[in-house]
Amino acid sequence: MIYELRIYHCIAGRLPALIKRFETTTLKIWERHGIRQAGFWTVAIGDSNQDLYYMIAWDSLADREKKWTAFMADPEWQAKRAESEKDGLIIASITNMMLQPTSFSSVK
């Protein structure tokens, strides 16, 4: 099992639009593609309250490649993403890391 940590750095004031898109659209499409979220977080105390952190659990890098490619090409996702950005872009940049649990991690 590997975990992907994604950090979406939102354009100022656009974090609520990103959260709404995940709640109402993205997670449903992920389910259809077999993408399993491991959690979502916003910053309560720290450097930026305009970031969304989330993790996805993957069986392997090949699993990630197959499912993420299918998700990104999904016509419903493309349409809903465009619709959610009709008032302007939401994300300024994305930080992405693939994490591998250590031998002593409680998460395997």
Give a quick set of tags describing it.
single chain, 108 residues, alpha+beta, Alpha-Beta Plaits, four-stranded antiparallel β-sheet, 4 strands
Strand and helix layout:
Blueprint: E1 2-10, H1 15-33, E2 36-42, E3 51-58, H2 61-73, H3 75-84, E4 91-99
Antiparallel strand pairs: 1-3, 1-4, 2-3
Helix pairs in contact: 1-3
What does this structure look like?
This protein has 108 residues and is an alpha+beta fold. It has a single domain (2-99), classed as Alpha-Beta Plaits, CATH 3.30.70. 39% of the residues lie in helices and 31% in strands. The protein has helices at 15-33, 61-73, 75-84, and strands at 2-10, 36-42, 51-58, 91-99. A hairpin with an 8-residue loop joins strand 2 and strand 3. Helix 1 (15-33) runs antiparallel to helix 3. The model has no long low-confidence stretch (mean pLDDT 96).
Distance between the termini: 6 Å
Residue runs with pLDDT of under 50 for 5 or more positions: none
β-strand percent reads: 25-35%
- The largest sheet has its strands arranged as 2-3-1-4
Q: State the share of residues found in helices, binned by percent.
A: 25-40%
Q: What number of structural domains do the residues give?
A: 1
Helix vs. strand class: alpha+beta
CATH top level class name: Alpha Beta
Question: Could you write a compact summary of the structure shown?
Answer:
With 108 residues, the chain is α+β, with helices and mostly antiparallel strands. The chain has helices spanning 15-33, 61-73, 75-84, and strands at residues 2-10, 36-42, 51-58, 91-99.
